[in-house]
Design a protein that fits this description.
By secondary structure, this protein is α+β, with helices and mostly antiparallel strands. Strands 3-4-5-6-7-10-11-12-13-14-15-16 form a 12-stranded antiparallel barrel. A two-stranded parallel ribbon has the order 1-2. A two-stranded antiparallel sheet has the order 8-9. Helix 4 crosses helix 5. The longest helix is centred in the first third of the chain and has 28 residues. About 3% of the residues have low confidence.
């Protein structure tokens, strides 16, 4: 690049001396003719075209800073002019004098007769804007407004890890009443009576959603009644049950589980008949514990309105205990014996059918046999829910037990039934 500019500079120095005399006469008169200005501008354009041709040869090797520097060298190809900034820049204490400034300063000092113009004269005729000072590269607007990344505020927090809860707790309870009044001269006879029944059912079920589930259910039911015809007992039980059911299952397929089940039940209070002081039943008299091993089928029918389990156990162990020896033969035990052990098979069904939003049917069918004797129980509870808290129940409970004493009228069959209305709540 320096060779190029020295070549051009020598060309200019040879030709500028002749033009300087003519140029001095024009500026001294203070009048620049229009024809002369046109010729002057044409000559500048021709020089610029020549420079462009030379410039384009090496433009691929020039950076943005080099291109800016080459534009400053255009002052060499104009009629030699005295620029104020060259002297100021050269004699400044912190000056960084460029090659161009050094060249111009040398001409100013050694060949002053070649200077034909001043910077102020060129400004008046608007020929060129002098480039004597270093131009600063303009800052891109993007650089000025570029967003600065904001460091996020790091707030220390405690990590809390919660273990999954596989337990489900639920239950329901109700308290219902029944009142029946019969006058002493009622044409069909009968007697007035009052009764109340309350029941609580609690469920605690474990299911890890993989293969293991453990279901626990505790049922407590107690009913009391009073009748004018019973002169020995002011109150006696009409319903009495304390039953616990536990079922441990290992999943075999989608609906089938290998199951170990235990059912234990007895009652709370003594059981009497009207105008009879004999105790027919009591707490732990009897106590039944049944342990069975088999399979369970999970029922989810009728769009899950009918749900529950069906338990099939080819192997079952039954333990019966009677604390009152006088009741031993009544419950199938040998006279004078407190306990009875036997082995057999068991079949158990527990279902809940929500027929409508207000009507439901809960049923439990239990069958156990030792192939010498059999026990069948079928509990049915029909519930009619009037609103969230008021409902009525119809309870039907037929039972068969050929291990007990045979009745002359009913044989081995037994039946209990009642209807009640009152308060009920589920959670």
């Amino acid at each position: 690049m320096k060779v190029k500019y020295l070549f051009v500079l020598s060309f200019v120095l040879c030709s500028v001396s002749a033009a300087a005399q003519v140029r001095n006469r024009v500026f001294n008169r203070g009048v620049v003719s229009s024809a002369f200005s046109d010729r002057y501008m044409d000559s500048l354009r021709q020089v610029n075209q020549r420079l462009d041709s030379i410039y384009n040869i090496s433009v691929a090797r020039q950076t943005a800073e080099g291109r800016l520097e080459s534009q400053r060298y255009s002052t060499l190809f104009l009629p030699l002019t005295f620029y104020n900034g060259v002297a100021h820049q050269s004699f400044s204490l912190d000056a960084d004098v460029s090659d161009l400034d050094k060249t111009l300063l040398g001409i100013y000092l050694h060949r002053p007769e070649l200077i034909s113009n001043t910077e102020s004269q060129l400004d008046r005729i608007n020929i060129i804007e002098p480039v004597t000072k270093k131009q600063k590269t303009e800052t891109n607007i993007v650089e000025k407004v570029a967003p600065v990344p904001i460091e996020p505020d790091v707030i220390p927090t405690e990590v809390m890890i919660k273990k999954p809860n596989f337990w489900t707790i639920s239950g329901d309870y109700y308290l219902q009443f029944l009142q029946n009044y019969v006058s002493s001269n009622w044409y069909k006879g009968g007697e007035s009576n009052y009764s109340a029944v309350g029941a609580v059912t609690l469920n605690a079920n474990y299911n890890n959603k993989q293969k293991v589930k453990w279901e626990n259910k505790l049922e407590m039911k107690l009913g009391m009644q009073a009748s004018r015809g019973d002169t020995l007992h002011s109150m006696k039980t009409s319903e009495d049950l304390l039953r616990y059911t536990s079922r441990l299952g290992l999943q075999a397929s989608t609906h089938w589980y290998y199951t170990l089940q235990m059912v234990a039940y007895t009652q709370f209070l003594r059981g009497y008949k009207s105008n009879d002081s004999f105790v027919y039943s009591d707490f732990m008299s009897p106590l039944n514990v049944n342990l069975s091993l088999g399979m369970d089928y999970t029922v989810e029918w009728l769009n899950k309105r009918l749900t529950g389990t069906i338990h099939l156990a080819p192997f079952a162990y039954n333990f019966k205990y009677v604390q009152r020896l006088e009741l031993s033969t009544r419950y199938g035990l040998d006279e004078g014996k407190h306990a009875l052990n036997d082995i057999g098979s068991e079949f158990d069904i527990n279902l809940l059918w929500k027929m409508t939003d207000n009507i439901s049917w809960k049923t439990r069918f239990y069958a156990y046999t030792t192939y010498k004797r059999s026990e069948l129980e079928w509990e049915n509870t029909f519930s009619f829910q009037f609103n969230k808290y008021i409902s009525t129940n119809i309870f039907v409970y037929p039972r068969f037990d050929d291990g007990a004493s045979r009745d002359d009228h009913h044989g081995f069959w037994q039946l209990k039934e009642y209807a009640s209305i009152g308060f009920a709540y589920s959670f």
